[in-house]
Structure formats: C-alpha cells, structure tokens
Amino acid sequence: MSLRRLRAVFDRSERALARGVPIRKTAVGIWVPSAIEQIVEVAALLREMGLLGAGAPPAPVVEAGMGDGRVAAVLAHLEPARPVYGIEWDPVVYAQAVENLRALRRRGGYAAVRLIEGDYCDPATYASCGLDLGAPLVILNYPDGNQQRLARFVARHAGPDATLCLFTHDRSVDVAELPLRARRDMPVAVGPDWRVSIYRVRPSA
Questions:
Q1: Helix, strand, coil % over all residues of the chain, rounded to 5
Q2: Which terminal residue of the chain has fewer beta carbons within 10 Å of its beta carbon, N or C?
Q3: Is it the case that residue 205 has pLDDT exceeding 60?
Q4: Which pTM does this prediction carry?
C-alpha cells in the first residue's frame, strides 16, 4: 500500500473521531491527530538516532497511547519486518484504531501490527500480548499529561535496554525519572516543529 492510500484511511478516521475539533479528550488524556508526513519525518529521525532502520536492534516498537493507530501503521509501513504494538485505553478511540487496521489489512500487509486495549502503565497489558518488559523495547508516546506516569512505569518495570521516546510540539515537556540520552528539535514540512526526546533505562549493575 502507498502512503497516499494509508493517508486516506486516517483522513476518514480523523473526521470520524475529531468531528471538527483538532483535539479530542479521551478517557485518560487527549488525542491530537498528527499528519502522516510528520510521522514519516519523525521515523526518519529515529533512524538517524539508531532506534529504527536496518542497523538498529530488532526491538519491538510500542506506541503507548496510540489514538487511531496512525503512528503504528506508518512504522509498520516503513519497517514491515519489525513487530509494532499499539496500546490505547479509550474504548471509542481503540475501536477506531481496530477499524483502521482492518481497512489497511484488506489492502495487504500490516500483519506485524498488534493492537491492545488497556493501560500502557499496567504490566498485565504487556503480558496479555506476550510482550516481555524485560527485553529491549522502544516505547513511543505523544505526551498528553501522562508522561511522568509512563516514565515512572518504564523506570520501574522495563529492562535496562528499554528506550522511551517522547515526541511533541511542547518544548517544556521533560521527565526526571529516566536519564536523557538525546534530544532533537526537528523542523517539518507540514505543521509546527517537533521535539524528540530519547530516554534510556539506566544500565543494570
């Protein structure tokens, strides 16, 4: 499937969920739909930083708070061999993500994507789909006020090779629970600039 067709699926999704409002309040946070082009550019930056791409470790990618599933879908489109998981707590938004994935699969591909309804700060959510929190993971999140809670969860439950990646337009976002590995401000072709912050769990002694 081309990115153009993928974009068409999520344009319909955005109209169904947002109903003309750019920010949707969910059960536990907010959902802000990002342009597909922005997500592609963030993925390119993650390749430059060694988290994705042919030379990166084959760690599963987990989108914590996936919204309608667009980030997970773009990553699976760009890296079809890498396991991609999306976790969403809000039942309405989760149902839309499931519908979107079905639409994509009817056009071929996306077999490596797994969607989970649940709390991304609950170990049981990861266990329900066979994800080992102690193994290397790349956890992505668009901060919506829950980033400190997520960072505490990663620091407490994830293994030493886990990475938390926050991508946002808000320059004030930071977490104290994990050491910062890298940070990039990234101008994009469409919309406001991104800030991408990479945090790594402390190496085990």
A1: 35, 20, 45
A2: C
A3: no
A4: 0.88
